[in-house]
Every structure is written in structure tokens, then in C-alpha cells.
Inverse folding.
């Protein structure tokens, strides 16, 4: 009688191939989660930057909302820009033409106070006389009663946001 060699097989386990496939699938899932986490973190950072930029533009809007558009002394409205020296002496909206908060090392709030916690940001203001019949057309001779105030917000010298609004001189 011949000796029969029995090969025992265990049916209640995983083969090496099955384990490798499972590890591969778990690795792909983890890589996808890490990738989406990075994307969500970037989106959240950009949202924070945009919120801060809109806050800084709104500070300029609130500051200029209470001021007359042109010099209250009644002098002829010939050019835009400050007739007075120093930010604290700006008494009308056209004084803010050319304002750039980088010279102050931080942006300002609606009370003209520096926001030192936001020193990486800067505000740049442009005031332009615009046509009464087409607000997109800039008029250089100060002949209309409408101005467009544009505030650009920068983060580390990179433009983040631009906001514009119209004011009437009456």
C-alpha cells in the first residue's frame, strides 16, 4: 500500500493576495481623504482672506459715508486728492483719492485707527469723477456730481478684492 500524503488546507483565512488587495483599497481611501482635507483647508483659508478683505473695504466705505464728496469749504472742485495733509485731516471723499495704507504699515478702520493685527493687508483707494449718464465713463474735468470710489485690498502685495460704489455730490 502506498503512503498517501495528505495536504491539509485551511479554508477559514485570507490569502496573501486578498490581504494585499484590502491594504491597497484602504490606502486609496486614505489618500483620497488626505487630498480632500488639503482642498478643504485651502478653501477655508481663501474664505478667511476674502472675509477680511471685505471687512477692510467696508471700513473705508463707513469712513467715507459720513463725509461730503468734495471740499466743504466751497472752493472749486478742480482735482481729486487731499487738500489737507495727514489722514486725520481728510474732510471729504475726494481727499482719499490715492490713499494707500502701506505708508501707515497697517490698514485703517472706520475711525481712522490702525488695525495692526491685519498688517499683512493694505487698502488702496481711488476716487474718480464719472459721467452722469454712464457711470463707467470717467470724466477728468470734475464736471459731474458723481464719483466712483474704488477700494482695492491687498494681502502681501497680492490683490485679493476690489469693491466700488457711487456717491453723488449735492
Amino acid at each position: 500500500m502506498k503512503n498517501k500524503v495528505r495536504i491539509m488546507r485551511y479554508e477559514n483565512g485570507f490569502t496573501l493576495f486578498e490581504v494585499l488587495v484590502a491594504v491597497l483599497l484602504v490606502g486609496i481611501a486614505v489618500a483620497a481623504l488626505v487630498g480632500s482635507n488639503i482642498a478643504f483647508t485651502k478653501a477655508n483659508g481663501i474664505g478667511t482672506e476674502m472675509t477680511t478683505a471685505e471687512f477692510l473695504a467696508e471700513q473705508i466705505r463707513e469712513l467715507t459715508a459720513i463725509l461730503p464728496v468734495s471740499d466743504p469749504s466751497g472752493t472749486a472742485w478742480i482735482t481729486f486728492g487731499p487738500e489737507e495733509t495727514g489722514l486725520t485731516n481728510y474732510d471729504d471723499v475726494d481727499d482719499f483719492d490715492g490713499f494707500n495704507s502701506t505708508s501707515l504699515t497697517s490698514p485703517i478702520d472706520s475711525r481712522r485707527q490702525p488695525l495692526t493685527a491685519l498688517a499683512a493687508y493694505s487698502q488702496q483707494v481711488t476716487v474718480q469723477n464719472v459721467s452722469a449718464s454712464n457711470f463707467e465713463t470717467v470724466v477728468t474735468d470734475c464736471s459731474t456730481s458723481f464719483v466712483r470710489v474704488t477700494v482695492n485690498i491687498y494681502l502681501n502685495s497680492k490683490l485679493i478684492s476690489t469693491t466700488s460704489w457711487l456717491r453723488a455730490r449735492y
In short: The mean pLDDT is 87. The chain has one helix and three strands. Helices lie at 16-65. The longest helix spans residues 16-65.
